[in-house]
Amino acid sequence: MKIKKVKNYEEMSRIAAELIIDKVRSNPSINLGLATGSTPVGMYEKLVQDHQEKGTSYKSVKTFNLDEYIGLSSENPNSYRSFMNKQLFNHIDIPIENTHVPHGDAKDPSQECAEYEALLKKNGGVDLQILGIGGNGHIGFNEPGTSFQSETHIIELAESTRRANARFFNSLEEVPTQAITMGIASIMQSKEILLLVSGQKKSQAVKQLLQGDVGEHFPASVLKTHPNVTIIADEAALSEVT
Ligand code: F6R
């Protein structure tokens, strides 16, 4: 794993966006794996700004999001589909049919998982996967204990994850209890992975990632076994690392 230490959230967002823009310009039909949550918001803003000012085109790019809440339709403002449309897709020239987010309101969520995994494979997999990390080490919504062999599957969200994400909902009760997530094996298939980490509240997770053992108790630790991972972490996120 390569680690790029940056000053703060702003610098993390800028460097991540520059890296993506470079990749999109050199491979206009790249498959990008995307994440939601607070971490990539600044990076998406910079991608939009670059598209508007410099014209980087996403016409042939395909995107595959990591996860979606079960039970939320794509129109629900708290769905990850809505988040992606609002943060990125509505502001760049990507054809919406090239953007993929699991359907949280699928009649048969297990079938939706199988279809999403098949879609990834049919498209040749992800070239560059963007990840954030949960305080408990989750990547995608793969909570501690998830098998490293897992493909896209249904997950029971950890209580800590529901609490962390309750800030987007009116109350904790409204936060769904389950999600569809790409599995650890699905994520590990990506040719390249970029993990973004910012802020003091992620410092313990970063410490465990860098100094702890590889094991299913801490999902992000699997990244140590991938040949092409870059972590962009800011000073606050690295503050516990000695
Ligand atoms: C989001 C996702 C999650 C988040 C993680 C960190 O699609 O898969 O793993 O990356 O929960 O969330 P934030 O960035 O909100 O701290």
From TrEMBL:
Reaction equations catalysed: alpha-D-glucosamine 6-phosphate + H2O = beta-D-fructose 6-phosphate + NH4(+)
Record's keyword terms, sorted: Carbohydrate metabolism, Hydrolase
Keyword hit for Transport: no
Catalytic machinery residues: 67, 136, 138, 143
Example of a GO cellular component annotation carried by this entry: cytoplasm
GO biological process: carbohydrate metabolic process; glucosamine catabolic process; N-acetylglucosamine catabolic process; N-acetylneuraminate catabolic process
Metabolic or biological pathway: Amino-sugar metabolism; N-acetylneuraminate degradation; D-fructose 6-phosphate from N-acetylneuraminate: step 5/5
This enzyme's EC code(s): 3.5.99.6
Gene3D superfamilies, per the entry: 3.40.50.1360
GO molecular function: glucosamine-6-phosphate deaminase activity; identical protein binding
CDD domains: GlcN6P_deaminase (cd01399)
Domain named Glucosamine/galactosamine-6-phosphate isomerase: residues: 12-226
Protein family: Belongs to the glucosamine/galactosamine-6-phosphate isomerase family. NagB subfamily.
Reported function: Catalyzes the reversible isomerization-deamination of glucosamine 6-phosphate (GlcN6P) to form fructose 6-phosphate (Fru6P) and ammonium ion.
Protein's name according to its UniProt entry: Glucosamine-6-phosphate deaminase
Source species of the chain: Mesobacillus campisalis
Phylogenetic lineage: Bacteria, Bacillati, Bacillota, Bacilli, Bacillales
